[in-house]
Sequence to fold (715 residues):
Amino acid sequence: MTLRTRLFVTSGVIAIPVAVALVLIEERGRMSAMEADLRRAVDLDLVTGLRARCESGVRPVPALPRPPTGTQSPRARPPGARPPGGPSYELFTYREDGTSGWFDAPPLASTEVSTFWMGAQRGTQLRFEIGGPADCAIGLARLRPRRGQLRDQAMAVLGATLSMLAGIWLAVGPLLARMRRLADDVRQSAASMYHQPVRLEADDEVGRLAHAFNDAGSTVRTYVGELQARERTLRQFVADTTHDMAMPLTVVQGHLSNLETTLSAQNGVTEPTRAEVRAAMRELHYMASLLRNLGIATRLGETSAALELGPVDVSAVVERVVARHAPLARASGVSLDYAVPEATLTAQTDATLMEQAVSNLTDNAVRYNRAGGHVAVVLDRVGTDGFALTVTDDGPGVPAEDLPVLTERWFRGSDARTRRPDGKGLGLAIASEACERLGLTLTFSRPVEGGLAVTIAASPSTVHHSSNAP
Amino acid sequence: MSAMVTQRMDPPDAMSPMRVLLVEDDEALGRQVVETLQRAGYDVDWVRRGDRALSAEFATFSLVVLDLMLPGAHGLDILKALRRDHVDVPVLVLSARQDTGDKVRSLELGADDYLTKPFWPEELLARVRARLRRPALAHGAAGVTETGPLRVDREARVVRVDGVATDLTRVEFELIAALARRPGAALSRGWLVEHVLDGSRDGGERTLDVHVSRLRRKLGRAGKLIATVWGVGYRLDVSATPPRP
Fold:
């Protein structure tokens, strides 16, 4: 219920009983006033020889003539006339047994004071003893109500009620309108991240409410600003750190790679020495992967990470990723092969995210394989517009029940893949999240020969291919 | 053995070493890259400052390896200047950032490829070779592939083993021709089925394997040059390619 409706209902609920009560109280007061008037008039008539007038046989018995109560102004009263003792009333006389000689006499009331109805209005009647013989034993004095009195009263009450409602309306209406405007303003202000203040119309309660809202808004803005600044700083720090670490890592990778080449070409180098170099290469490769994933995770963690879309040569992505993991594969005794279509396959996507997804899948496939195992990365055109990029391995595979939770961050398989905390869960989770952002579908399957096959598929609209050979 | 290892063995043109311009400010990384490229047989000129790189004779190089964060001038400005002068030397950009903006901008400004640090020397060489792949690297004359005892002439549709022409069916010829067109590269089963077997995919991969084993038999001692690549498909082995004249 809106405030306006509630106001109407409430004032109706209160005003109507109050009006009725007012009418009743007014009526009661009028009745007792009429009764008092009657008593005074009858007493006066009795004193001034009513009984004698009755016994003289004149019918109806003449009451003392007097002007009606309340309507007489002092100036209209004849000079010297005695002040009125009461209103003019109708007088009827009865015998001891309550019958009257008059054909139009009303039935005698049993109580001293009673009321009677005349149309829709009530009059007061008073029964009194005259004490004379025959039909001069009991008298009944009746005071008729004035015509239209009830209607006047009702109109007055109705008028009062209506003017009260109108008063409420006049007072509250503009207030309600301002509160509506305030609500609109608040909504707009919130939509502008509280940069647009709420209008202050006046320095009253509503104005103070608006003011309080502006204060709250500026607090929120300051707080959000601080948070954003902190997040920016942190993100910048991560970006700078990954950038700075990328340099020495590349240099060490180069040294190790050269060392490996030199060692494998030399005779007289013991196998343990070669194994040590290969182990160092694997660890270094792992560090490089972590570093890349750190950068990507920071990007994906942003609430409104904007994708940086551009035409991406997917074939080149595959070649790059395979080249990246070839040293690891060689050091691990895993054969890593790939195939790409003859013509360049280009997709409109985010190069870094896409490449990291493929890289993480390939990395996992190589890392969790055994010596003598295989990994294959195959890019195929699907239909005229789509592509499917599948990374297959013949490693230990993943139990069927683990497939659905494979992409959860920090998940690690329950068997051979849990040997050490190596962040595999992070790699798959990042691959999965990157694919989701890029509108690519990621599916896991278990080939019949064992191992794991992961496919990244693009819906046709994201791919634009050219026919020129690479 | 992987395709990458095969490529590693593949020397650039031994007659005239290709010149590579490296623009890199980091001393250690620069030395590393120079060494890697020199080992692979390239001549390397190394410039350490961006502003110095701006005055380089780009047109005299076969490839430019360009770092982005440089003292003196930003890598993107060097790229812009280079393309403004209509020099069409291939440019390989080295980026150390995990966001994509640098790469997208580089490609827009005319870079041909990029590599994100950290990388293995092998990754760098793979990208360099991909950029310098030239028609001369295709084996022999146009439409002809020679490896070991095998000679595939796609124009004349003739396949010879040790000089003797073999009698192949149409599908068998298409198969060896497809493999010979990209020597050393693995071709996926899916691609071969679609392009060699006319896309009759149902039961296609098994049919393909049957065709391949027949082809191997017919090629005799050259049959083993058609290597099965696990999880991928087939490849024409070129590691036994005799040195070109």
